[in-house]
Amino acid sequence: MAAEAPVGNAVGQDVGALRAEIDQLRRALAGRAVIDQAGGMVMVLAPCRRGVARNLLVDMARQCNTKLPDVAVAMVAAWEGEPLSRLMQQALRHALRRLYAEDRGCDSSPAVEPSGRGRS
Question: Per residue in 6-20, pLDDT tens?
Answer without folding.
Answer: 666 887 888 888 888
